[in-house]
Design a protein that fits this description.
Length: about 475
């Protein structure tokens, strides 16, 4: 059962929805800046090297500085690492670390990953056209370089998407290197690229958003697809310079179902497998409050939501409150895996930490998907009580080092797990040689074995994140 779970444990999540803004003066300013196509860089003979920065924030980066075939590109805080030192050649290629930006497997569908590949003299999927307004269009697909979902946050995947006049698709590039002959930029396209008839599923290795909010503008040029609007108030200016993205040393977040519905969560339609998305209903236990109702039919596997907040990285100390209500019909006695919330690692596989319901108890589990092999554990939190609200407060010190990562759990105000150190740590290490740790992000809902035939339905009453216990109490 665990084997099938690991294969199906995809790290899918949505990127923060862009806020729409009507600011013609701001976009004009952005276009004026981006029209030069010149970014921070240095000249070395005829080769110019520098960062490729995004108008919404961050810089194009070769993930983990790896030069293996099809290594993914991402948006990250601007820095001086070799993975952000790009050269724009006059043959249309974008090069870093001796390799070229390419489309994964040469695919042309929207949301195709942009990866690093050996440079080719004939591949049109490695050729990019820089437009005066800052669009970077792939010559094979006709679509534009963009962070996934046109969203801005650390380590968001970079893909090709339907060309749209949004800040996330405006880039500043180094001056062209003239070693292979001159190039010129062309005027911005007058129409957007026709969207494909099918859309590829977002990659399973996409990271979780930070609290950076995407800045978006509209002009008279229509787009064929737009991100789902958010309930937050839009920003009205577009930055003209790129700054480092926040690392976020402090973090607070609240679900606020009563005041905001799902406004504090990312829209994640690919997190519904064999089930519909959740709905907002009147709380079954708290008068005047609203809650999120999740329903999983027998045989279904996933209906989850993702808080719009930062991911969790090495050394961060976080507190979580997770309050839920299990009705009498909830299948608490299942003997297979049934997850109600998880701290999911970036990438595939089962998470380092999860809360499950089965065999009559609520449990803290994890470690099945550790890159070095299973580091499994299971700790009973308490009985899976139905017909009343259950409040969990969970304290996590996130670390890939099992000697450092710690979990404490309180159930209905009583300490039930204290100072527990999972065998695989509370974060997974990377699968490449690196001192960095892969981040985790929070998901909640129902994720379970498809062999379970009973319907499951429950409500999340509230969820919070804080830097101290007092902030989530």
């Amino acid at each position: 059962m665990r084997g099938s779970r690991i294969m199906d444990g995809r790290g899918l999540r949505h990127r923060r929805r862009a806020a729409a803004a009507s600011a013609l003066a701001a976009i004009a300013l952005v276009v004026g800046v981006l029209a030069t196509g010149i970014g921070p860089g240095r000249a070395d003979a005829a080769v110019v090297t520098g960062r490729i920065s995004n108008a919404g924030g961050g810089c194009l980066e070769n993930a983990n500085n790896a030069t293996t075939a099809n290594n993914p590109l991402q948006l990250n805080s601007c820095g001086t690492g070799v993975g952000q030192q790009w050269s724009r050649y006059s043959d249309g290629t974008l090069r870093v670390q001796g390799r070229c930006a390419d489309l994964l497997n040469g695919a042309t569908a929207a949301n195709t990953r942009v990866v690093l590949a050996a440079c080719s003299t004939t591949s049109t999927s490695q050729r990019w056209t820089l437009y005066a307004a800052g669009y970077v269009q792939n010559q094979r697909s006709g679509t534009c370089l963009a962070p996934l979902g046109n969203q801005i946050y650390a380590r968001v995947a970079v893909v090709v998407a339907t060309c749209a006049n949004v800040a996330a698709q405006h880039w500043t590039l180094p001056a062209v290197s003239t070693t292979t002959g001159p190039t010129t930029t062309t005027p911005a396209p007058t129409t957007t690229t026709k969207p494909p008839t099918t859309t590829t599923k977002p990659p399973t290795t996409t990271p979780k958003p930070t609290t950076t909010t995407t800045t978006t503008t509209t002009t008279t040029t229509p787009t064929t697809t737009t991100p789902k609007p958010t309930t937050t108030t839009p920003t009205t200016t577009v930055p003209t310079t790129t700054t480092s993205m926040p690392t976020q040393t402090a973090q607070t977040w609240s679900s606020d179902f009563t005041g905001s519905g799902f406004g504090k969560f990312d829209d994640a339609p690919w997190n519904y497998v064999g089930a519909d998305g959740p709905s907002i209903i009147s709380s079954p236990v708290t008068a005047g409050a609203e809650a999120a109702l999740f329903t999983m039919p027998g045989g279904g596997t996933r209906t989850e939501v993702v808080p719009t907040t930062a991911e969790f990285t090495e050394g961060q100390d976080r507190w979580f409150r997770f309050s839920f209500y299990l009705p009498a019909s909830f299948p608490t006695q299942v003997t297979s895996w049934q997850v109600i919330t998880q701290w999911k690692n970036e990438g595939d596989g089962s998470p380092p930490l999860e809360v499950t319901v089965g065999k009559g108890t609520v449990n803290l589990e994890g470690g099945y998907g550790h890159p070095a092999g299973p580091r499994t554990f299971s700790q009973v939190i308490g009985p899976a009580t139905t017909g009343q609200r259950t409040d969990l407060v969970i304290h996590v010190l996130f670390s890939r080092d099992p000697a450092q990562g710690v979990v404490d759990v309180w159930r209905n105000g009583t300490a039930v797990i204290s100072g527990y150190r999972p065998a695989g740590g509370t974060l997974y290490p990377t699968t490449v040689a690196s001192t960095d740790s892969l981040a985790s992000y929070w998901k909640m809902g129902i994720y379970r074995d498809s062999a379970i035939t009973q319907q499951a339905q429950y409500t999340i009453e509230s969820a919070k994140i804080g830097n101290t216990r007092a902030q989530v109490s």
